[in-house]
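Researcher: Batch entry, complex prediction.
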Amino acid sequence: MDVGGQVRSLVSRRALGDDRARTGWAFVLPALCVVTLLAWVPVLLGIDMSLRAIKPASGIPDHYVGLANYQAILSNPSTITIALRTLGYTLVVLTLQVVVGLGAALVLNEQFRGRGVLLALAILPWALPSVVRALMWQRFFAAPDGFLNVILEQANIIDQPHIWLAGGLQVVIIIGLVYGWGAIPLSSLIFLAGLQGIPSDIYEAAAADGASRIDRFRLLTLPLLRPSVGIALGAATIGALSIFDVIYVLNGSAIDTRSISMEVYLTAFRDLDFGGGVALAVLLSLATATIVVFQVFLSRRSD
Amino acid sequence: MRSRRRRPDLLAAAVLVGLWSVGPIATTLLTSLSTPLTASTGHSLIPSQFSVDQYLALFGVAPAMVGGVVRTEVPRAFTSGIVNSLILSGSSTLLVVTFAVTAGYALARLRFRFSRFILVVFLATLPVPSFVVVVPLFRIMSTLRLVDTYQGLVALMVAAYTPLAVWLFYSYARQLPVELEEAARVDGCSRLGAFVHVMLPNMRSGMAAIAAIVMLSTWGDFLGPLVFSNTKQPITVVIANFVGQYSTNYPLLTAAGMVAIVLPAVVAIALNRHIRGALGGWAR
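Model: Structure tokens for the complex:
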């Protein structure tokens, strides 16, 4: 900043009085009150609830039980299965973010005719309600007459319809794919912003030094893109670890596709065990925060 | 700039990205335009007969048939879902944008004492899964008799999207040139005057982006309304109910889905430039 500017701002500060803090507080207060009352107070109440037995249907009044809700969750063998499955969904989603999301960003970073249209279309899956996304893909994987079964039968790859949305690893991959389809555009846009922030002259210099396309990608693009990768994967992880809507629409509360959030929902609002439900949700937030902090740390570390 | 022609690999990749993005939407549209009979028996992507009957059925112009029975509750549930979504998404977007623009601007450009700390208060809610807030809030709102009211649902949405919106607008406002305010201040504007007369008109793109992002998020909100609504169900909950009840009539389900995506698709395409701008600034 030039000296003139500094003098000017000093003069104006003298003349008008520094109302910076007053204006700042006035501007921040409404949002701060809303977030405190509607997010932080419930979170603190939630932690308190997780230490109580709250079962309105049982007729027994609420009472403190210490860490009993947490102990019940951690000693329940199905918790491990559900946690691993949720991690499985997340891994599928993150893999898709990196492969498809980065791939799409590399395409969109090029100059070609129709790029503007493609940019507008590429954002679409993310803009749609998750419930409708799931509905769209349900038609694809449905048995016996979903598109996938029809295509595979007509190509003589299978001779009878396959039930895609039942059991095992395949349904975890499919649900991860359906969720990922909606989450990828956000990552693509973050990657694209990162790619556009890389000055083009370093590529020209590298090309002049004889670096191949692959070398330039591996040695320049990927390292320089690491902060964007950190943010994109962090955002995707927060969402994917709480996956709920897609499972609810595609498979309801079926036992072999339940995520942690689905289990929270069933515990709190079907079994009416509010304490147990919140305890599981608190554990999920601790896990989410830990993983995301770790990701941000890895992406910020310079080497 | 390199030549725009002779790049078949790039063209193929671009077509792939396009197909991946709109393919599922296109097949859904085709299903919604088929008749229930062809959709369940016809083993092909393109229906042999096109019909808009299911769209008419959703709005009560034609009878909604499921399993050979006329369902009079379908148009009622569907239209009330659309109306509820418009009310809920519209009012929460208005509120969240107001909160995000004022708070985001102040945190980015006024940098007063504690402003860093306040930013952290907003950011720290982001990795908290909705259920941690939803379950206690459900108990609070039951006591206050706010469950299944517009006020309660709007409060829920405002709580869910204000922190992210503040962060997005903070990142956007941080990148605007300082000279804008300096000039206004030298001309004798107060901080408030500078904000209203100089900053607001210069922050239109960021405001459009935040409004679009919040509108898309609240329109698609599912988990909160699933727990908190019964007679005020938004379209997402109505469609999820349809999936459970009318799974035999795919064209009807997909038609409902297609109507529900008209507004978000229009908003996303019309404002995509602004959305990309805000997200790009956020990621940096």
